[in-house]
Amino acid sequence: MNSHLNKPSRQKMGKPYKHDSAKLHVTGEAHYVDDIVLPAEHLHVAVGVSTISCGVIESIDLTAVKEADGVVDVIVASDIPGKHDIGAVFPGDLLLTDDRIEYHGQPIFAVAARDHLSARRAVKLAKIRYQEETPLLDLQEAIDQKIYVRPPHGLSCGDAAKAIQDALHTISGTLEIGGQDHLYLEGQISVAIPEEDKQIRIISSNQNPTETQLLVAEVLGWEMADVTVKTRRMGGAFGGKETQAAPWACISAIFAVRTGKAVKCRLSREDDMRLTGKRHPFKHDYTVGFDETGKILGVKYQIAGDCGYSPDLSDAIVDRALFHCDNAYYLPNAEINGLRCKTNKVSNTAFRGFGGPQGMLLAELVIDEIARYLDKDPLEIRRVNFYKEGEKTPYGQVVEPAQVPQIVEQLAKQADYLKRRQGIEEFNQASPVIKRGIALTPVKFGISFTVTHLNQAGALVHIYHDGTIHLNHGGTEMGQGLMIKLAQIVAEEFQIDLDRIRITATQTDKVPNTSPTAASSGTDINGMAVLNAVRRIKRRLEVFAYQRYQATPEEFEYRDNKVHIAHEEIDFSEFIKEAYLARVSLSATGHYKTPKIHYDRKKSQGIPFFYFANGAAITEVAVDTLTGEIKVLRTDILHDVGDSINPAIDIGQIEGGYIQGLGWLTSEDLKWDKAGRLSSANPATYKIPTAHDIPEIFNVELLENAPNVANTIFRSKAVGEPPLMLAISAWSAIRHAISAKAQKGQKIELKAPATPENIMQAIKKL
Ligand code: MTE
Ligand code: QUE
Ligand code: MOS
């Protein structure tokens, strides 16, 4: 029965298998939604949007649109058969509006035409009159006027006011942080295919097929069982396809039902950038009290997210910012308020880190400012403040084990932090224009959805009677390598080669009621569900084997594509065939729910995270203080993924996450004009990192011999989001470089991102 307890050493775990689709990716054979061959006469959608940011629609004249070449059908809000509001958690997101305009680019109507370009040309012919109002575009204005999409909600512990008052030193300041566009390679896209008897099939580039299933059903006035949503893979998502993929599926579905034809909605890159939400910009106000060693005694933080016009996921996103504004540092007394501010912009949404990065940046800024104030090495201040074993976060979770100090010391030593920092001081004295900087920053990121019910997953495993395996589960593939990791789990359990396992598309009629693939939890929760399904089949197989071969559990073992029973050795596929002939069920579902976690949001106390993922990075930069241009000279990363399931995939996630974070903090600058129209709405005006921005020296290592203490799948740790925050070391290093131009103890006012413009502004303020 317990053959898995005395199994041979792990064969399929910890191996650098390449991504299951790697070959398809590089040869161009991988199917994305736009590659799917559709039935003849399918239609293409374009969306007609508002050209103002705030006001009321006076009249809509779509005569010319309807008469345009190739147009087959046009819909406005009143054509939606069911529910109009597709807000994921709270109401506030209309699929199409016919009344109030809340942001520039808000969908008003949609066109279905015979080809993509005809649809896009037709929407331009609309004549819409508005009663325009002054839009609220500035986050500070929303803070001042207390204009929110959700009520304020914060965290507190101890007595912050008293601790700050009693402290020897205090500093106050603000930090402005910009947003970020997801810039996934494959933009938002959905196909709807009508089927007989009021059924519809959706194929969508989507992190959250179940939610899209529900929303399509609701806008059609149907039920969930009438709708199937399928996602094979996404060409990147990064949080941008949790809620933002649904509207295009809903609009396609409405047209599909009206016309009886297959309908595709693919946003142009500009539409994608204007019409879908981004990372939240934040503005933080802080006051910190500390002693002569730099130890933090109390903090008062106000953490304000720019949510755009509607709630979307902003409650949970600002919560995650609150949960991470301590980062790896103990705050004995804290009063942290979180604001969800409303502006007349597209509704901001999930983006890798989910508010965590914005909270964490404040934690690191505060440390750096304390160090500058006391004229000490920031690493010293970090050490003084690290959580020690047993200390609690402001939300009451014990940080156990407190791994960051060990990681930081190991990294500082192996990357020669101290000596290089001294070298930089010398370099800067001799170099008037080019200034160098270096910083070591840690990451401690909580793993689990802070919304408890989302921490569940399902799986479906079939073994066909030729011994090949069909693997399905609730997670979606967006490039992160979820599928290969889960296939490795199956291969490990049966000790068979990976090529016997078929990875299949995520589909709501195979595994129902799935959570979004998000919060870095894809492998953690779906992996456990897969394991659970596989072990159910294994139990049946073993009962069969003991009877058939008169064997005991000790005499049964999976090894090298074979099953060893007593003195016999049978090929795995042979064994499966025999089990089939003996009428053993070879298919099972599995389910998993994360144990132990709970969170009482009313009290702001609990254990929201199953465990923490940790890491640290040292980044060295050069800043041209005449132009503000920067170059990353060297990056060293030591990151904790527990017992890695696949080190090649994990290192890829760490490198990619760091570079994406580097883009957020140094070059990606979202700009809106005075009317609230996004002016950086294509990759020509919005600068993401390229191959040229990769550090000249880029050392990434996984922390060794560090199995997860929490009982996760093969003791691994989630890796998707945490490495993005390692890039905070680059931002901190840039501040260090700028400080070469400052007086001792002088504050450095650098906005994020540290673009050349913002760097020059910070230097000018000195
Ligand atoms: N990696 C790639 N290549 N593409 C992506 O879209 N999304 C990130 C991260 N890594 C993403 C990625 C985000 S936001 C999350 S939450 C996780 O992957 C989701 O996958 P996981 O839970 O399986 O790690
Ligand atoms: C981290 C996340 C998410 C989260 C909470 C986290 C996330 C997400 C949701 C969420 C919350 C409520 C809902 C819902 C989703 O919460 O990605 O559908 O009703 O989607 O701590 O990444
Ligand atoms: Mo990731 S932001 O949780 O999709």
Strand order of the largest sheet: 3-5-1-13-10-11-12-21
Bound molecules: ligand MTE, 3,5,7,3',4'-pentahydroxyflavone, dioxothiomolybdenum(VI) ion
Q: Tell me the CATH topology of the domain at 400-449 and 610-766.
A: Aldehyde Oxidoreductase, domain 4
**What do we call the CATH homologous superfamily of the domain at 400-449 and 610-766?**
Aldehyde oxidase/xanthine dehydrogenase, molybdopterin binding domain
Helix and strand composition category: alpha+beta
Overall 3D form:
globular
Uncertain residue segments: 1-7
Tally of strands: 30
How many helix segments?
19
- Quick check: average pLDDT? 97
User: For this structure, what is the CATH class of the domain at 400-449 and 610-766?
Assistant: Alpha Beta
State Rg.
27 Å
The major beta sheet can be summarized as: 8 strands, mixed
Residues in β-strands, percent? 15-25%
**What's the helical proportion of residues?**
25-40%
CATH architecture of the domain at 400-449 and 610-766: 2-Layer Sandwich
Q: N- to C-terminal separation? A: 71 Å
